[in-house]
User: What shape does this take?
Amino acid sequence: MTADPRRVVLASASPARLGLLRQAGLAPEVIVSGVDEDKVHAPTPAELALALAEAKAAHVAARPEVSGALVIGCDSVLELDGKALGKPADAEEAVARWKAMRGRVGVLQTGHCVYDTAAKRYESATASTVVRFGEPTDREVAAYVASGEPLYVAGAFTLDGRSAPFIDGIDGDPGNVIGLSLPLLRRLLRKLDVEITDLWA
Assistant: This one.
């Protein structure tokens, strides 16, 4: 562990991502990118998640005040029936989403991009985790949506929140579903010649 770790900036407003990084020993600053997600397009959900992550990281990395920092950009979408599902627009859409998902299997795709502003290089990749949804009743779905939680998360569900009882299981990295794959982040950092242990605060 170095005495003076590199400055790390998270280009995301997600409290879940910030929490994962802090639990892993990092002390990132948060600078929200402000990227208009509706203007980013890609042929597949996995490629869309990656394009969004790259756009967010690049947008923040271009700011003069982050010069020298490592910028981490992430974005998640749920792939269901080949379509990318982000945050539901409203409660009605969240209810419809859950009724479509229950008893089925989806893939949570999270794009990751790490931009080294000192070296002016970046590495990126998408992590995929299979999610097996349970079968909550209509009453349970209504109660969950009324909590407000699904309106703020990709796919209208969380693995570490109120919808956890409605997820039967996953295949892959649980952190990826929460918002960020720490093993993938470590690999991307290593490609940039940065050891994650050197970033521990």
In short: The radius of gyration is 17 Å. The CA atoms of residues 19 and 73 lie 15 Å apart. The helical segments are 15-23, 45-61, 91-101, 138-146, 174-178, 182-191.
